[in-house]
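User: Quick sanity check before I run a bigger batch. Here is a single chain. Can you write out its predicted 3D structure?
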Amino acid sequence: MKTALIAIDMQNSFLHPDGENFYPEAPEVVANVKRLIAAAGSSGTPVVHVADRHREGFDDFEQKRLPQHCVSGGFHAEYFDGFGPSGQPQEIEVVKRRFSAFFATELALFLNEQSVGRVVLCGVKTNVCVRATAQDAFAHGFEVCVVSDATNSNRAHLAKASLEDIERYMGKLITTDEAAEMLK
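Assistant: Done. Predicted structure follows.
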């Protein structure tokens, strides 16, 4: 089955110590996500870099629940060092304005055009954007694999509950080692 890697919100906002949404555990996923991108790159596996970006000066529905964040063109919206499309032909960027990388984006269309049947998800935050993306991937008919040691949250109990729900209802949990083999 053709697989794609989806790296979610690997941006300064979450990963840089000066990021507006930084939390101390966030950088713990950096090495594993880099490893997964390298594994996918060595085999030509599609890699989707997902960026959360919002427009400055315009209303955004997310702002009813969250403060303004990841404003396009600013430091916080940029990819953290070592992330984002590197110019390799199998890498693309998908910009999202909601939690899910599928909602109101071209992601499902792109994956279907590439005959992808399985998605491997990693990035931040487990209980918000990773979970929402997993749920929508499942709803679009993709086999969902979440790399449990390549995602985390500032709310460990919610991350744990989200991973349990993902495994029970939407897909399976795998490790970075298992994902790297799958992506080769």
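The first helix runs from residue 12 to 15.

User: Great, the batch can go ahead then.
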